[in-house]
Amino acid sequence: MTYAQDEKIENLLESGVLPEISQWWHGMRFVFNTLLSRRPLPWRRVSKHELSHIYNELLTHCALVDSPEQYKLDKLGLDTIWPKMSVLIRKNPGLAKFMREYGVHSRFFLQFLYHVPQASSLGAAFGEGHDMSGKYTQIPQSDLMYRFSAQDEMFVWLRRRTKMVQDRLKKSKSVLFIGAGSLPELRRYDFPLGQLKQRVVGYDSNLALRAHLAEVFDKPLETYGIDYHFESFEAAFNDKKNWGQYDLVVANGVLSYYTKHAQLENMLKNMKLMLADGKASTIMFDLQLMQMELVRDAVVLNWRTKPQIKPEKSLQVAVSKVKKVCAKLGLQIIKCEFNNIGVMFYVKES
User: Which end of the chain has fewer CB atoms at under 10 Å, N or C?
Assistant: First the structure.
């Protein structure tokens, strides 16, 4: 995706073309619809007739594409994922309601839900995703998924934190990504991939990323000088070849899984071990903050992980926790950046 295309999805909001959404209308009413269904009342269940209606509406929307061949591919894609998705929708009245109002008007939304919480689903933040046929491609601005991606607070944060890391990344000679995922920091906003004289190492234990990385990079990663390890971050920490080697250590979307003081302390202690000597060496990581959209994502959209992400109750709680851990480890927070749903910490040795 080019720089102009990356910026376009953000400019929709900044220009006022898409006004700020009502958080209640966008999320909580669906959450309550799901939570209330836990009582065994028949009118709060999703019927087979409603499931059939959602399927037919999805198929009807796909038929609007002016291509008989594309319609056949879309129908095949829908029929492939429908057995799993119909079970999820049947169990979740909030999701059924969300699908009736939003999902059935998109060739991308059901596939997005199917791939949650895999890294490929995060491409929606930048206007990319799997269409109904299963092909990973750009989301047209006319598709309702595009609007959802532009307005959703979590996706707004993903775009912002990518830019934050890129600002430091361009100045770094050696970088370690913990929980590297699909490396959006190296692909978005016209980042000069492969043009900088720097060492880039990434660790992620999710083997499913092999296929997705092949979708989003036009060449093998080693062509761009990226040393990607399909291993856990423990493997990175235990490899003495990594100790003291990096002037930037990045852990985006990682530490909200390890929010207890002892867990956070262990992660930061090990990331500190990776830092090269020098005042410029920096650790960057973010924590999620509790907001309604995270509740909707978990309860309604089935955005669940093992272990489950544990957002901080507030910005103040997050900062206080990190300050205490940093003080114990001989680290200091030099900068924080945040929005409603996330906070990025810049940490150096004291």
Answer: C
